[in-house]
């Protein structure tokens, strides 16, 4: 069983660190939220709900509406229409605007927003002091958080004297100090280097689940979203493209756009062929079966389609030694390659440390990318096999 280790004495499995909150109790509900800035409509009728103790990652590129949605939840902006509720209380609508400090919501900003002139312990205690609780209770809470976030020994340092990862932990400790109903994370790892991002997203996911904290997390990084989320909320052009568990979104992307965002950026054009109840796409002389998106209707025979898959979801099953590097192999008569295979010509192959990445093309000249455990030679021809469960079929038409 895979486990996450935060210290020498603390090891929990993924199942053990799942939040213990009541999964049926609603925390946050958005109903048909819209928001425009002049002629630009940032949100176009967003509706979803969130349970107590749940971690939702809002995923999408710049301009999709992530930050606008976060601002509405935080109380930094008011919707043009629709409602936003925390529990049974409406906290935002065109006529209601509950102040941020009364929502029981705290945010960790992208740049951490620490007070540079305050020591670590004063930054953590800032919200507690504003709440006017007793000095002894503040000291106890700060010490708890210093230990919880592995900040012991740093309490008298100023933020500029800390590393990026330490500053982030201070920002999280400050947000946790007042025990918020909901934690908001705004691209919290974007300022860290790659190695530290991987470490911190694992630690954060562990910590929030251990504490049962409800988290509304905004990111453009799918790996970060996968590591953190109980559910993904994928935004595109101000609308929800897909919402579901990371596994659901990864294995059955709802659109070709979502497939590309989640790593299936190989896309080959072909014609739909029905094989009994299954759908396949003819690419050159090959037939490749795949999955239709959830809710997608059966595509018309011979209609244009896109076959999408991830570069590492392939297996090289044959090397064609002696093939003329200037031409592609052709198959005798009308024979087709065996199930779900493609013959490719390798154009280029690059070493990436623990893997190789190749650029190749099909017999009909379409380019694709492969991630491999072993190198291929430029000019050689290979046969690859693709599992039908790792291939996604979408209509080849303009998306909304």
What does this structure look like?
With 400 residues, this protein is an alpha+beta fold. The protein has two domains: 3-256, Rossmann fold (3-Layer(aba) Sandwich), CATH 3.40.50; 257-395, no CATH class. Helices cover 21% and strands 36% of the residues. It has helices spanning 66-74, 120-130, 135-148, 164-177, 194-211, 222-228, 246-251, 256-261; strands spanning 3-7, 10-13, 26-37, 40-51, 55-59, 81-86, 89-92, 105-108, 182-186, 215-219, 231-236, 239-244, 266-275, 278-283, 286-292, 304-309, 314-319, 341-351, 356-362, 367-372, 381-386, 392-395. The strands form five sheets. A six-stranded mixed sheet has the order 8-9-10-5-11-12, sandwiched between helices. The longest helix has 18 residues, at 194-211. The radius of gyration is 25 Å and the shape is globular. 35% of the residues are buried. Mean pLDDT is 88; it is low at 1-22 and 330-337.
């Amino acid at each position: 069983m895979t486990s996450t280790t935060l210290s020498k004495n603390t090891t929990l499995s993924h199942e053990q660190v799942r939040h213990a909150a009541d999964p049926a109790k609603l925390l946050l509900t958005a109903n048909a939220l819209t928001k425009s800035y002049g002629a630009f409509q940032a949100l176009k009728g967003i509706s979803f709900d969130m349970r107590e103790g749940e971690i939702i990652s809002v995923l999408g590129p710049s301009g999709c509406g992530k930050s606008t949605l976060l601002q509405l939840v935080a109380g930094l902006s008011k919707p043009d229409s629709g409602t936003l509720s925390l529990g049974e209380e409406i906290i935002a609508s065109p006529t209601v605007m509950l102040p941020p400090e009364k929502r029981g919501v705290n945010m960790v900003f992208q740049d951490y927003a620490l007070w540079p002139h305050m020591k670590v312990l004063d930054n953590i205690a800032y919200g507690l002091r504003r709440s006017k609780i007793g000095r002894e209770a503040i000291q106890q809470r700060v010490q708890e958080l210093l230990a919880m976030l592995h900040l012991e020994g740093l309490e008298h340092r100023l933020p500029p004297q800390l590393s990026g990862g330490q500053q982030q932990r201070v920002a999280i400790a400050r947000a946790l100090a007042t025990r918020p109903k909901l934690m908001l994370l705004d691209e919290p790892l974007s300022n860290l280097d790659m190695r530290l991002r991987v470490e911190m997203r694992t630690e954060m996911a562990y910590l929030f689940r251990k504490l049962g904290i409800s988290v509304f997390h905004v990111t453009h990084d799918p790996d970060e979203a996968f590591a953190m989320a109980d559910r993904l909320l994928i935004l595109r052009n101000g609308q929800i493209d897909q919402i579901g568990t990371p596994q659901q979104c990864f294995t059955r992307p709802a659109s070709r756009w979502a497939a590309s965002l989640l790593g299936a950026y190989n896309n080959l054009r072909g014609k739909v062929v029905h094989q009994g109840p299954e759908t396949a796409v003819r690419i050159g002389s090959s037939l490749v079966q795949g999955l239709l998106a959830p809710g997608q209707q059966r595509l018309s025979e011979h209609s244009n389609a896109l076959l999408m898959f991830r570069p590492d979801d392939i297996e090289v099953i044959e090397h064609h030694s002696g093939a003329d590097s200037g031409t592609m192999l052709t198959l005798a008569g009308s024979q087709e390659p065996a199930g779900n295979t493609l013959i490719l010509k390798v154009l280029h192959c690059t070493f990436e440390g623990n893997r190789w990445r190749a650029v190749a093309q099909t017999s009909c000249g379409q380019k694709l990318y492969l991630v491999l455990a072993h190198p291929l030679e430029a000019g050689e021809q290979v046969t690859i096999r693709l599992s039908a469960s790792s291939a996604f079929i979408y209509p080849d038409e303009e998306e909304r």
